[in-house]
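Appendix B. Chain record.
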Amino acid sequence: DCKLIIESRAKPTPKMSLVCRRDGRMNIEPNDATTKELGTVNVLPTGYPNGRLEIPLPNDTWKDVSQGTLVKLLTSKEDERRYELKASRPDSLIVPKK
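Structure tokens predicted for this chain:
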């Protein structure tokens, strides 16, 4: 059982995509043919309830993703300038052994 947990007091929150590279390399860019989108976090105009959003990620999210693959949250280039995305546990951004 895996969850994506996002903590933020921002209002509104940006649209984000949980992505990885199909070829397993580290440099993940939006709109790149090798980028695989695993999920989307929509804009919430009033922010996250209590500053926290938990999104369950079912096991089939990872069926085509190799162990050791880096995952990342991306926003649009415009939102990248307005919001800072930071992992509180960088080790959790790597797909573990299945």
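Further analysis of this model is presented in Appendix C.
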